[in-house]
Specification:
2 copies of one chain form a homodimer.
Chain A: H1 7-22, H2 26-42, H3 49-64, H4 71-94, H5 98-108, H6 122-132, H7 135-140, H8 142-154, E1 158-161, H9 167-175, E2 183-187, H10 198-203, E3 211-214, H11 229-237, E4 240-244, H12 245-252, E5 259-264, H13 268-274, E6 281-285
Chain lengths: 291, 291
């Protein structure tokens, strides 16, 4: 997805919010905001918004001297999600359609996104779970969930591109309904915002459930040119890509491949790009389905 | 008032909103947004926000080739306010305290501000009138309204710094409760956003009621260094300044003088600077009351 002019004020708001979250040093806040202004001024708007997210958070790590400013936030999200896991698993066990329920719960977990907000209340997560499981939501995504179900059944090799810490515990519910031996989970190569890394996947217990690799990149999304050769090869060779979250939608929607996006739509620009309303728990495919 | 870091994303939003309002040319939108990024990057943040507003709207007029892009908006606001005038005058005539009622109606008119929004619905103006006249509002400003009333009685020469087209018709209600022969109304020197100019004051019939001069500046506020010598002299010689709107508060709050601000607080940064809630219809004084 291209960067729209509406993304510009949002980049600045994100840079300010994130710098305030990461440090109390007002000089760092001003430096990050000013540097972001300079970067966005020269940014090619055919690049996707996470390309700017990468740069803003690189600056923030450098200016604050903290290589993983969201470390505590991520640990806390993982703990919270792990507490929820048993009750969520019961919801899957009790469901008429286990797979559809697990898909919608995995999407609900995508509410834990510190790229959009600097604070996520526990109640918001609970609400996301309940609204994702409401009968209307199940029905509205039903067609695409069935297409995804069939794609999984037909695929020999599946990549599951994770998004955020905490959310990965919700992903586990879905991975447990999938052919886990044919599936690899992918996390970011190094810390950016609250996106899950290998360390977060280990802490959340995912590495004992499924094979987890990293993509070698610090983009809050998946820009292939920034990823490791081994990841890119795996990406091209996979029969099916399941990509979580807005960042992966923004960066992969125009890529070739058999890609399904599972996301909670939190931003009006992305909602308009997709053609849906903000707040939707959505299953959708990339523009270039034929490859 | 200084520029706060929260103003930065808002400058970009305003630049984009205003450019879309002024022209359909997407190249102009992008150019104005990019140029604003460059200007804000280098802006000294001890300058007030309207200093940036001036530059953004200068760029916009240049890029669009339109010296008065809000001309129609201003004419329409004036017409709408002139239609309301007779019923508002009745409210003043029926009021127990004519002056206080006129003050609060003048503040209600400050809702007609296209610096904060690109669209003002008629209903918002009606609501601003009703909420300004609610008993709570009258009471909450009562002390300051009485101080203003006494200041007017004591003053030989009064400057009334207007803000927006349309709003100036609401100002007329207050000016008619004041010693009009000792009062001069001041408008902007040339078009910026929907701020009132001499032409707007003429169209709204103000020039037949009171002496109206312009300040020689295109700042959406009153930055004295940008104003004409004759205005500055008048400003320094006046016993009392009544300044309407956020832009005048932002630019004059740290100036010396006997200044009263009458404004509808529409921005959270200004609300925090003043120490009140967004939405308030407020009478307040400058920081440097002794001069």
């Amino acid at each position: 997805m291209q960067t729209y002019l509406e993304c510009v004020p949002c980049f600045l708001r994100q840079a300010l919010d994130a710098s305030r979250m990461v440090t109390d040093d007002v000089e760092v806040h001003e430096r990050v905001v000013r540097d972001t202004l300079g970067l966005v001024e020269k940014m090619p708007f055919d690049h996707s918004p996470p390309a700017m997210g990468q740069k803003i958070h690189q600056m923030l790590r450098e200016a604050s001297g903290n290589p993983d400013p969201y470390s505590e936030v991520k640990a806390s999200s993982n703990s919270f999600a792990l507490e929820l896991y048993p009750s969520l698993k019961q919801r899957v066990n009790a469901a008429e359609d286990r797979f559809a329920t697990a898909v919608l719960l995995a999407i609900a977990g995508n509410i834990i996104d510190f790229g959009c907000k600097t604070r996520i209340e526990d109640d918001e997560v609970h609400q996301a779970v309940e609204s994702a499981l409401a009968p209307g939501e199940v029905k509205s995504n039903n067609g695409q969930i069935d297409v995804l179900r069939e794609a999984i059944e037909r695929s020999e090799s599946i990549l599951y591109l994770a998004d955020n810490a905490g959310e990965i515990v919700f992903d586990r519910l879905l991975l447990e309904e999938m052919p886990i031996d044919r599936t690899t989970m992918v996390v970011r190569g190094s810390p950016v915002i609250n996106d899950a890394t290998l360390e977060d996947a280990e802490r959340a217990g995912l590495t004992s459930v499924i094979k987890v690799i990293d993509n070698g990149s610090d983009v809050p999304g998946t820009i292939l040119e920034t990823c490791s050769e081994s990841f890119k090869e795996k990406f091209r060779q996979s029969d099916l890509i399941i990509a979580k979250g807005q960042g992966n939608y923004e960066t992969l929607n125009s890529e070739a491949g058999n890609i399904f996006f599972l996301l909670k739509v939190k931003c009006p620009v992305i909602a308009r790009d997709i053609g849906c309303e903000v707040g939707r728990a959505l299953v959708c495919r990339n523009q270039l389905v034929d490859w």
